[in-house]
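Section 3.1: Structural characterization of target chains.
Under the original work plan, the team committed to producing a structural model for every single-chain target entering the pipeline before any wet-lab resources were allocated. The record below documents one such target. The sequence was received from the expression subgroup and is listed exactly as submitted; it comprises 73 residues.
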Amino acid sequence: MPRDTESIERDIERARSQLASTLDELSVRTNPKRLVENTKIAVLAKVNEPPVRFALIGAGALVALLVVRKIFR
């Protein structure tokens, strides 16, 4: 059962529209400024969690202690 040309043209136009919409969404998602901003937000949220914060404070204190020790030896 062959399809008429109008039906085929409508399907093609619908596919083009969906493709354009998908490309627009991808261009927004892969915008470098947006990626940097999203990454920065995610990192700050992770760092502000208490277990991570205390681990970073401990690691920083240990590094500071080792540097001071190295200076005075």
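The first helix runs from residue 5 to 29.
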